[in-house]
What does this fold into?
Amino acid sequence: MLKKIIKWLLWIAITGITLLAVFLIYITAIDYKPPAQVQLPHESRQSAGIKHNEPFKITTFNIGYAGLDRGQDFFMDGGTRSRAASKEQTEANLEAAIHFLRESKSRLILLQEVDRKSSRSYKVDEAQWIGDGLQDYDQTFAYNYKVPWVPVPLTQPMGAVKSGLLTLSSFTASSHTRYDLPGKESWPVQLFELDRGFIESRLPVDNGKELVLVNLHLSAFDKGGRIRKQQLDFLGDYLESEATKGNYIIVGGDWNHSLPSTDPDAFPAQQEWPEWLQPFPETFGPDGFQWAVDPAVPTVRTLDTAYEEGVNFLAVIDGFFVSPNIEIVQVAGTSLAFEHSDHNPVTGTFILK
It folds into this structure.
């Protein structure tokens, strides 16, 4: 009897190891490996170009794949969940984001964590949903997370993920390019991690120059910020190169750092500063570039528990970084009380000088 039990246990162990090996081989074989640069599909319906010396608005908003509303937590931040509460809640969160964006009257919109038929958001094509809700804009999408199956957390796996960045424009554009960001986790962890990149959009200006618009979402949970440093070094070199051409440059998005001129201690909270959040390096970027952030409105909350005002740690990690030939007229975060996302949007008004 003992020999039979041992035999069955060995058979179960060998079967499990074999299945795991086959799974890893399959995931490795089809792993999404984006090129360093790739031109994104581009078909502009817009006729208006940007005029210098005239103000225009840009909004950046991480919509949290329409699954991280105030009742949710997230396993990577110490919680237990990875999926939205339901398909109905996903759609309600999307509709709330679209309503805000429509009311913002922004000419340019930078969105992060937009899913396309992912398990965690109940297969809702969020990019299509947003496009249908904001039909006056051209939209450009780029993947930064494409995995056939994420097996964690074990109790409710994240599952299939297709997600990325979405740039919306009511100005005409000459091109959109996805740039791959450096810095990867080691195998096999990287198989289930994001492949970060940013969208560069080039928009002609009436004085013959271009506005180089960057939609960005940096890494968050890399230990010690090693990957984030590589990404910032790459971005800094990119900005140096573009700055020498004399163009206008606006970088907006989720930086996953506590941004300069902001202080998380300004927001009441019972939780302490989370390990993943780092202050932004003071030496970043070309000379003369300016931060356009609102220190008075937090743009992110911790996700180890559902949101409760005065409990969760809050910080400003979303905003804009602009070249010195751009005037910052106003920048304002909008507190949506984290009702439909773990982020709050930020809107900037700018003038190209």
The chain has two domains: 1-30, 35-352. The mean pLDDT is 94.
